[in-house]
Amino acid sequence: MYPRPPPPNFSQEPAQPPPDTPFPPFGLYDIFLENIQFDREDGVHESIHDLLHLPGPLGNKARRILPHLMPVMIRLDKFSLLNLLLQNDVVIAPEAVRAAAEQPLEEAKMYLELLFTHGWDINKAVGATEPPVLRQLKVHSVALKRPRLVQWLLAKGADPNASCEQMDITSLSVAVHQQNFQVVELLLQHAEHRHNGYLVHSALQRANEAEALEMLHRLHRYRKPIDEIQWQDEKSLVHRGPFSCGTPLYWACRWSKWRFALALVGLGADLDQACVKDGRFVGQTPRDILVEHGAAFAAELAQGLCFVEGNALS
Fold first, then answer.
1. Do residues 97 and 136 make contact, with C-beta atoms less than 8 angstroms apart?
2. Would you state the torsion angle of the CA atoms of residues 15, 20, 26, 29, taken in this order, to the nearest 10 degrees?
3. Torsion sign over Cα 277, 281, 287, 292
4. What residues form DSSP beta bridges with 141?
5. Which element (helix H / strand E) includes 68?
6. Pick from 1, 78, 249, 296: most CB atoms within 10 A?
7. How far apart are CA 176 and CA 206, in angstroms?
8. φ, ψ (nearest 5 deg) of residue 21
9. What pLDDT, in 10s, does the model give residues 189-217?
10. The organism sits in which domain of life (predicted)?
């Protein structure tokens, strides 16, 4: 049998880290989080400053951890602490940009200005499927719910057509999908390009049918295309090419959104455009779906006999 280890001696003092190590190398995030929340700011400022200037693994670890604490600093209004990190070239975390956009207007402008000054590109994608700061979102868009912040960002050079890293989702397409018409109109006025973010697809997905129809006609007045096959741009094709991608009319018919389909046909949408998958046409056309559906008005729509004047869609 192996000999039993001696029992622990609780009378001894716990081992202390070396005097030149301000924090143990484990749990550094939790230590900083607690310090930021509860300790005097000048003391935290000094500790972070010292740690950032340590050579070797501990200093490198601090630089990896501290970006994740930037949102906490913003939400707790620790401007000087955030400024300290940025002045020491700590990488800006996308979560910090989101947190800044969530603040009340003046605070949002102050923190965003700081982030922009220290190198965050206003038109840089926040993530693989998240477009730039103009459309900061958590569950819903934050910046896009606030026209004054949107106006400020646009004045700073924000581009409504700048897309995310992997797909052509733009701030404008997000606004068309879920935001009020005031913000959409503001972004449309600043959107110089005709093809941007599959806007009619986004309008189709609005929760309110009447709003979706109004948005469709608004987009048509800005000459936005109605027959785009989604995700066929070079960026999106890499990630969405293996999936069936169709026109707005195809999806309106597939999802039985007949009033939207009727409006599209009235605007000249193509009834015979099939989906594309891996560069090949596949599946049914909108006309096929409508004939299969069998409704009387759908059959008329399939023959192209319906006509829509303006917004009289009821």
1. yes
2. 130
3. negative
4. 137
5. none
6. 249
7. 8
8. -110, 105
9. 887 666 678 999 999 999 999 999 999 99
10. Eukaryota
Q: Which residues of the chain carry a pLDDT beneath 70? A: 1-26, 126-145, 165, 192-195, 294-314
Compute the Cα dihedral for 44, 46, 52, 55 and give only its sign: negative
Whole-angstrom distance, CA of residue 228 vs CA of residue 289: 18
As a whole number of angstroms, the distance between CA 208 and CA 32 comes to: 45
Would you state the structure tokens that stand for residue 89, as one six-digit string?
């070239």
Q: Identify the bridge partners of residue 127 per DSSP, sorted by sequence position.
A: 130
Q: What whole-number distance in Å separates Cα of residue 264 and Cα of residue 133?
A: 32
Predicted TM-score of the model (pTM): 0.69
- Are 128 and 134 contacting, i.e. CB atoms less than 8 angstroms apart? no
- Residue 277: in which H helix or E strand, if any? strand 275-277
DSSP letters of 102-159? Answer: HS-HHHHHHHHHHHHHTT--TTS-SBTTB--GGG-BSSSBSGGG-HHHHHHHHHTT--
pLDDT digits (tens, 9 = 90+) for 62-97: 888 999 999 999 999 999 999 999 999 999 998 899
Predicted local distance difference test score (pLDDT) of residue 127: 64
**Helix, strand or coil for residue 19?**
coil
Pairwise CA distance, residues 290 & 298, whole Å: 5
As to burial, measured by CB atoms within 10 angstroms (0-12 exposed, 13-18 middle, 19+ buried), residue 31 is: middle
Query: What pLDDT sits at residue 195?
Result: 64
Q: In 3D, which of 185, 188, 134, 186 has the Cα closest to residue 157?
A: 134
How many separate helices (H) and strands (E) can be counted in the chain?
A: 17, 2
In whole angstroms, what is the distance from residue 64 CA to residue 25 CA? 12
